[in-house]
Please model this.
Amino acid sequence: MTTPADEVLRAHAEQQFASDLDALERADDRPKPPNWRLSPWAVATYVLGGELADGTEIAAKYIGRRRLVEIAIATLATDRALLLLGVPGTAKTWLSEHLAAAISGDSTLLVQGTSGTGDEGIRYGWNYARLLAEGPSRAAVVPSPVMRAMEKGSIARVEELTRIPSDVQDALITILSEKTMPIAELDDEVQAVKGFNIIATANDRDRGVNELSSALKRRFNVVVLPLPEDEDEEVRIVRERVIALGHALDLPHDADALREIRRVVTMFRELRSGVTSDGRTSIKSPSGTLSTAEAISVMTSGISLAQHFGDGTVRADDIAASVLGAVVKDPVQDRIVWQEYLETVVRERDGWRDLYRACREVT
Amino acid sequence: MTEVHVLGVRHHGPGSARAVERALDALAPDVVMIEGAPELDAVAALAASPTMQPPVAGLVYVVDEPRRAAFYPLASFSPEWRALRWALSAGARVQFADLPAANALARVDEPLEAPADEGEEIRDDPIAVLAYTAGYDDPERWWEDAVEHRAHGLGVFEVVLDAMRALRAGESDGVHATREAAMRRALRREIRGDARTIAFVCGAWHAPVLVPDAFPSVASDDALLKGLPKTKVAATWAPWTSSRLAYASGYGAGVRSPGWYEHLFTTPEEQVNSRWLVRTATALRAEQLDASSASVIEAERLADALAAVRGRPVAGIEELLDATQAVLCNGSDVPMRIIARRLLVGDLLGHVPDGTPMVPLARDLVRLQARLRMKRSAVSHAIELDLRNDTHLERSRLLYRLLLLDVPWGEPIETGRTRGTFKEAWRVEWRPELEVALIEASAAGTTIVAAATDTARNRAAAAADLRTLTDLVEQCLLAGLDEALDAVIDVLAGRAAQQHDTTRLMDAVEPLGRVRRYGSVRRHDTEVVHSVLASVMTRVAIGLPSACAALDDDAATAMRDRIDGVQRAVGLVDDADIREGWQTALATVVAQRGVHGLVAGRATRLLLDTGRLDGAGARRRLSLALSPGTSPTDAAGWVEGFVAGDALLLLHDHALLAVIDEWLCGVPASTFDDTLPLVRRAFADFAAPERRMIGEQVRHLEAGTSVTGGRDDDIDDARGTKALARVLDILGISQ
Model:
């Protein structure tokens, strides 16, 4: 039934990085919390990369602040649940998958939160055929990933927690505080085995969709994942993703086209942070996120425009319209922000004349 | 035989402070020597006063140039302070020992603040370097674990001494050699005296060289101390603040978190983390943020787990802060800023007793008074200054600087709206309470100019709105504070960029324009103001159309006044780009629908006055605004905005008057009553003769003739030229 790891489109973290995990397991001589595959130190090394005593090089899975990863791991070690918060495109899901893989060796116990996620997605459902044939019994219960994680003593992941309706979210309260899941119909319960914990992710930009109740919030330690800290790092991420996406969409990428990436990233970073990259001029920030993911989509559509309607080289004209679309989300306030940015920053900058003209044209 | 105990400490280290107190109790020395300029001996006794409350700073400054000063900040948890207090209460003699400030401050060629380098750090705070090397990020924690847990009483200082000997092995210390020679010289003097037991409290780095057994020869120390330059210095105490403790000055590096150290010093060791988290929760609750006891418990557990992940024996301040953010603040860093300000740094303000010698700021004022020949007089009197005269300009600046420092010796009188005049009048009166104000201001700096600069900077950083900032720009300009001016302008530029409300930006334009235009009177380079003004104007021009939309009557009146203000500023600075951008914005407003009549009328008038719009265009706009589709009240507003100000326009452009006349006659009786007061208001500002002339014009309009019969060809050029020459002569314009 399972497909070999090298034939699937995308392998799970614990499959793809199995050699890293094995090497760490061998080298790991520090105390492990019960049912953890690795010690907290080894988990941190797995996520952040490093070199082991025997010379094995562990690749970094998450590039960012060490502090945050340490807080996340320490949280899971204390039996408190972990909530990873951040704007879209800040590697929340990525980090949660790798943490689960390193701690439990299994990142597949996953609940994808949507507005349609029901109680049974978090707790358990029923195998109705069996229920009708045999009456209520443990055999008729269909466990959710969370329930299975409790039984196994491993990490369960809940994606997009704030998309789940509030009443369903609150099913987590008992699980997190009592570490049990009652099955009222059978007058039975599942008690969590040591090592069980939950990593939830949520998007803090679409706030208010289903805000967590304060009772639930109190049971999570929150780590906010930031956008990439420096420009080169972000350019690198965008470049890699654009090339990868280009392959997937059969867009021939030309190396020259990628020259525009730096300008797009610079603009996004400046607008996001409200200050120019030289730190000398303040500007207003628009209402949109302008995340790294959006920079990637601006570049991809620029390449596509250049490919189909231009000569294949990405120029200022090709990206101007999508930059405008990404920045101006609110037609009144954002437009003022954008115009001010154009007139006070883009216009004055050396070598940006073409971009200024192109943006003026579409604005 | 004299017993000498060298107590090597970490400056501002609460752990060291405790150890010093314990050691002093055990040793009961009759002489306590403390690292510090010997000039401080003169004021040491003041520390015994109950009204002296740390944080305070021992201050030694050059009498003729108070800017050159050395500060020795002391917090309640500083080992030096504990030693000083111990000695004063136990009746032991206090002796500060170091290179005399008279010599140290005399080296004028040296920069006041030496740039910190790697070697400097290890000398200033060797214990911190040892702690960082051991993987700690809180040196006090390292002190607890590595020193206190292994040694007791005086043994602590043995450990420190050994560690420093190892650190200093092979070190040829050039920078501090003279200082250490001076410390040894002071120590030798005490040993020769009748002292029985001497305790020397010094920075850990210096400890190994102060042990008498290891002393180099007297001759080599004397050689180092010979022929040093000297200057006249004075010493006193100055009140200090928690936030200033964080600066590096005097006793090595500053403390990053004085609040935390205070906490470490006053809390029993086993309760440090719990109490800190409880205090954190209390601070958060005071800001209406939820922080339950259960969360406090979870935060402490997380801090411990974090310490384990990071391989540390116990959780320190880093772990506590990380845990606080994750558990108590929902990951947000906004509440963390409250914690940083309230708890980590703290808001303590020190106090010095009444008998403290005069602060350098007061001395600086005395010096300046003598130079500028200004007498302190208790009688209020007016003085007039001519700013072309250097001394007078200096006096004016001094008075403005004192105003910034909240020492209102003088009060400017009759300052008109313009700053273009060379004359300036003041009413000056010295009141006794100003002495107190000077002492309060002395925390900001040692000279009037430095203190005023610092104050202006702080006010700029704290300023809530643009208006305050533009006022501050004017004050800095008047006070001649170039450095502060640059800083304030920087803040202003930043705030202006963040300002979403165009009206606020517009308020800032006119003061900036004045500064730009009249700065030269006070001999200032206002180029930097110009660039800020240009960027503010760019933003105003972009935001103006939307700021003019959907205004009620009151808002429209305010907007009209603002537009007039900006127009005045644009006229003052005379910059083609700015003018062009502004007029384009006005043109957009004129063309926009739904703009209040008062504003649209005013904008049209300004465009007409500046020639952007010609007479025909203005007439077309006017008749459009007054066409039957527009409500009469709105139309009346338009007329008011358009005609108010200068009557000549209506007197000369009969066509315009005709359009207004036609409209007014066409207003239906039902709305005439509402319209009339508005129309009256439009004409109310004109002088009576102007109104009469307009009235006559209107009568002639009906008759189809014009009252100003005089035409261009009636002018006698020859006679006119003569008169013109005379007028030019009077005005001082050569032809």
Remarks:
- The CA atoms of residues 44 and 70 of chain A lie 7 Å apart.
